[in-house]
Design brief:
This protein is of the alpha+beta class. Among the domains are: 65 residues, SH3 type barrels; 67 residues. Helix content is 54%, strand content 17%. The protein contains two helices and seven strands. A five-stranded antiparallel beta sheet has the order 6-5-4-1-7, with no helix packed on it. Strand 4 and strand 5 form a beta hairpin.
Length: 203
């Protein structure tokens, strides 16, 4: 009975400790290509922990085949997520460029065409800049002309108003003189007629 209990206990111990006694994660490497960002998580709010260059060693802790990402741990102890396609099962061969050149080197003809294109764009930019300066100069000249015309109009208006006032005063004086003359004549003429009658009556 004792042996049976010991065997059962050993079996339970083996079942419990089996995951921890499994094989240690194998070393993998970042594949050749562009650097890979080690992300703290898989959401948009998570941040980048490090930029891993091709050939960087690490250990895979978990692979999520559904989303194509793997949880890894670096030799420094940092843990994060990277795309599964960036994992290489073997280190990069010696002499292989770690970062792939995204564009092949340009030929002299392509460089000459690009220089010509840039020179054409530069000429167009300079011409546009000169047109802008010319437009600004013409605008400033027009504004100065408008200001001068406004001042001339104001001066002419003041002179016209002053002339109108002078004419009004002149006509007022003339009217006053005519009125006074009429009053004087209205007073004197009857008297003169009376005197003339008296003078002729004395004869």
């Amino acid at each position: 009975m004792t042996h049976l209990l010991l065997a059962s206990a050993f079996l339970v111990f083996c079942l419990v400790t089996a995951p921890s006694m499994g094989a240690e994660p194998q070393t993998r490497w970042i594949a050749a290509g562009e650097p890979i960002e080690l992300m703290s998580g898989l959401s948009a709010r998570d941040k980048s922990l490090a930029s891993l260059t091709p050939g960087t060693p690490f250990k895979v802790l978990k692979v999520n085949q559904r989303i194509g990402y793997a949880r890894i741990v670096l030799d420094s102890g940092e843990i994060g997520w990277i795309p599964s396609k960036a994992i290489s099962a073997a280190p990069l061969p010696p002499g292989l460029p770690l970062i792939a050149d995204p564009q092949p080197p340009k030929s002299p003809e392509q460089l000459h065409e690009e220089v010509s294109r840039l020179q054409t764009e530069l000429i167009a930019v300079r011409q546009a800049a000169s047109d802008i300066l010319r437009i600004q100069t013409e605008r400033d000249q027009l504004q100065s002309s408008v200001i001068a015309l406004k001042r001339e109009l104001e001066s002419t208006t003041r002179e016209k108003n002053a002339l109108n006032e002078d004419q009004k005063q002149s006509w007022f004086m003339i009217g006053s003189g005519v009125l006074v003359t009429g009053i004087i004549l209205g007073v004197l003429l009857p008297r003169l007629r009376v005197r003339r009658r008296n003078h002729w009556g004395s004869y």
